[in-house]
Structure formats: structure tokens, C-alpha cells
Amino acid sequence: MGALVSPKPEHLYQFGVMGSIFSHDVLRQKTPRIGLLNIGEEEGKGTEVHKAAWKLLKSRALAFVGTSRQRSVPEQAEVVVTDGFTGNVVLKLMEESRASCSR
């Protein structure tokens, strides 16, 4: 989920490619779905970086499923691309949610 705090659209695309390869080769997902974490589901939402990343991800031969809704990230895509700050927050929330469910 992102290694840079301020990625360029090309970086988000590359994260999708890397995540797809990892998910396919290591986790044995036949066709890993790739989602873009954004503020809304529509293509025209988000920053200019998100809009450009959407176009890159959609135009390439990846299994791009569009924007992942924050509430259902794990169900929508095996690979979710975002910037490092947002990705870190989402991971921490998911960890905390799992921890509270197991108590």
C-alpha cells in the first residue's frame, strides 16, 4: 500500500504492477484485482495524481477494478494502491479492527 508519501501517478501504476506480480507469483492469485484507494468511487474524483493514476491503471493490461471503497478494501481487490501515508493509516485501522474483533 504505497511506499511514498507524495507519489506521482506513474508510481501508483508501478505499485499496482509490483503488487500484481507479487500476488500472482507468491500468493498464487490467478488474476489479482487491483484497486486505487481514493476519496470516492467515481473516476473523476480525487486529486490530479489520483485521476491520472486511474487512467494509467485502467489503460494497461492489469485487472483494475477501479476505486476501492474504504469500508470494504479486502473484499474488492487483492492489491490496493495508495500513497504511503494513507496506506499506513488504513493498515493500522485494519490491524486495530482485527485485534478488537478477537478480544
Descriptive report:
With 103 residues, the protein is α/β, with parallel strands linked by helices. The chain is 50% helix and 14% strand. The chain is built from four helices and three strands, in the order αβαβαβα. It has a three-stranded parallel β-sheet with strand order 2-1-3, with helices on one face. β1, α2 and β2 form a beta-alpha-beta unit. The protein starts with 8 loop residues before the first helix and ends with a helix.
SSE string, helix = H, strand = E?
HEHEHEH
User: What is the distance, rounded to the nearest whole angstrom, between the alpha carbons of the first and last residues?
Assistant: 27 Å
Q: What is the 3D form?
A: globular
- Percentage of residues in DSSP E strands: 5-15%
- Name the average pLDDT: 85
Q: How many beta strands in the DSSP annotation?
A: 3
Strand pairing plus helix content: what structural class?
alpha/beta
Helix segment tally = 4
Spell out the key features of this protein:
4 helices, 103 residues, alpha/beta, single chain, three-stranded parallel β-sheet
How is the topology of this model organized?
Layout: H1 9-25, E1 33-37, H2 48-59, E2 63-68, H3 73-76, E3 79-81, H4 84-101
Parallel strand pairs: 1-2, 1-3
State the gist of this model.
With 103 residues, the protein is α/β, with parallel strands linked by helices. Helices cover 50% and strands 14% of the residues.
